[in-house]
Amino acid sequence: MATPVVPATPLVPTTPASPATKPTFVMPDLKPCSHPIQGPCIDAFNHEILIKVGKEGKEVRIYEGLLTYHSSYFAAALSGSFIEGQTKVIELKEDEVEVFSAFHCWIYTGRLHPSRESPLSRDAYKAPTSSERNDLYLLLAKIFVFGDMRGIPALKNEAIDILHQLYTCTWTDFHLSAVKYIYKNTTATSQLRQFVAHANVIGLRDLKSFHETTSTAWPIAYVFDVLQLVAMKDRSGAWPKLTGNRMHWAKLDRCQFHDHSGPGGALRKTPAIG
Ligand SMILES: [Zn+2]
């Protein structure tokens, strides 16, 4: 798991997460996603291919039909045009085993972690320590980026939902290293960028507080995203409607940060098994 390279710097001072195992805030019942992705048909569970992950070459086997149903990237890689389509072996040397393990768990179970007690699970939440929380923010951002690069919209949506749950329950801003990672590895239209900017704006009292607490190390694109959100709130008269309103944020429609382009995403050119 990656370690922040710079000290965490929230936009405004926030209450540190309790080290207690029980969360102090319980998520309300939320409206389910308006465009849930259906699973593939039984034919997708055909034969397994081998994936070697990370520099250590950890070997993972996944049904080819399941993989190509959810991912346009793997569907293209396993087509006859590439050597992987012949050997049925894919090497992902640059990927982190922890990130791929979350994807591997998700593609079979719909969850990012096998344990329902894990903070990566939406079923049974345990409040992490502040150190764990920062690492989890970064891990979830990496899972989103993995889904983005491999054409897996449903994985991105799961990462957004768990980030929303984790942020709401700990009520602590995304730290500098997570923001820097996100803005380095996503495009200007990324739903993850929008989510993080929206979340961190909630903690602001006004622009003066942003100026006082901001770091010169923030990505400039992030600063513009925050300023744009503040300006939008000013024009609508809603600012600072969301400030400190935890339940309001908890009940937000997460679909505004989802990718509803379906299995394989917008890059899908041919129908997958399903
Ligand atoms: Zn949705």
TrEMBL record:
Entries under InterPro entries matching the protein: BTB/POZ_dom, SKP1/BTB/POZ_sf
Domain BTB: 47-116
Pfam family, one: BTB
SUPFAM superfamilies on file: POZ domain
Source organism superkingdom: Eukaryota
Protein name in UniProt: BTB domain-containing protein
